[in-house]
UniProtKB/TrEMBL annotation:
Keywords: DNA-binding. GO terms for biological process: response to stress. Residues 1-127 form the HTH marR-type domain. The keyword Lyase does not apply. InterPro entries: HTH_MarR-typ, MarR/SlyA-like, WH-like_DNA-bd_sf, WH_DNA-bd_sf. This is DNA-binding transcriptional regulator, MarR family. GO terms for molecular function: DNA binding; DNA-binding transcription factor activity. Gene3D superfamilies: Winged helix-like DNA-binding domain superfamily/Winged helix DNA-binding domain.
């Protein structure tokens, strides 16, 4: 039941992201950097589950658009630090707000008690995710 919903939500997000000049991976990168504004490229790729060589093109695109900056890590000259810019924050925030409005429209289809129960249940499942691999 979750897979069709996930596919529909991703499909609904695509035009929103395009309107804000973002790819899905670009949005994921900015979303991650919004939570922790400085990461190494390798740590960022690991955190979002992307191959570190595949993420380079996404980072290049975001950097060319002025949405992030990459600098050498003073502690390790081989590593590059990735930092979200103010424009990156602005564009991420605008896209995120529009995506959330769409999610709210979908959730409004449920009675308030069902909506609250669904959101609590989803939060509990997200919290349980790290434990799945331990069984």
């Amino acid at each position: 039941m979750i897979a069709p919903l996930q596919r529909a939500l991703v499909a609904a997000e695509q035009p929103v992201l395009r309107a804000h000049g973002l790819s899905m991976w670009g949005y994921v990168v900015l979303d991650t950097l919004e939570g922790q504004p400085v990461r190494t490229q390798v740590a960022l790729a690991e955190f979002i589950g992307a191959d570190k060589s595949r993420i380079i093109g996404v980072l290049d695109e975001l950097e060319n658009d002025g949405l992030l900056e990459r600098t050498r890590d003073p502690a390790d000259r081989r590593a590059r630090l990735v930092t979200i810019t103010e424009e990156g924050r602005r564009r991420h925030g605008a896209a995120q707000a529009e995506i959330q409005r769409g999610e709210e429209r979908l959730l409004a289809q449920l009675p308030a008690a069902d909506r609250e129960a669904l959101l609590r249940s989803l939060a509990a499942l997200v919290d349980a995710l790290p434990k799945l691999g331990q069984d």
